Amino acid sequence: MSSNGAVYEMYHAMVKQVSAEFKRKYAMVEREDIEQELWLWFAEHPNKVEEWLALPDQKDKDKLFARSLRNSALDYCIKEKAHKSGYNPEDNFWYNKQFIKLMIPAVLSDDWTKFNNTLSNMGRTSKALAESGDFMAFSSDVKVAFDKLNDREKSLVHLFYGEQIDGAELRDRMDADKSQKAVMMEANRAVNKMVKILGGNPPVKDEDYHSNT
Question: Of 62, 91, 95, 212, whose CB neighbour count within 10 A is largest?
Fold first, then answer.
């Protein structure tokens, strides 16, 4: 395995870049503290570091390290923000793609009947959730994210997830020069963009692993 000094030289710039990126997002957290947390990630994941450094393609190495460092920075910043703001980070709500897709038809039409029926059929509740404070807030958030899409993305999301037309009709109405799969994937990317607008995916628990040898 490369020495700690070599790892420092290789990933010093990346650590600086990631820490600066999250400092912009979490102004209440010190950039130096984020950097320290990222270097701690290297110390706590010796097996991953050794395996990834041995990869032949530098781009593959950098992609893996960048993903894990951003995940570590996000986890740390969320906890620090909660600590400084006086709340439990477990109280954070994370919007995932499935939840947004479920809400889009109701949010765009302001008709919550089908949404409430869907949740009732899933055994989630017998209450009309559209009348609850939480779901009014969720609805507002999803609408804000939708409004931040560009015009083409809005049309794709509205047709495919709001009106729930099939892929063939989506292609015919949006772009007959593209394949059905390509247009559907474009609609999916638009929903992924909404997830990012609403905070992105939550950090995952990133543990090192042990070699069997």
Answer: 95
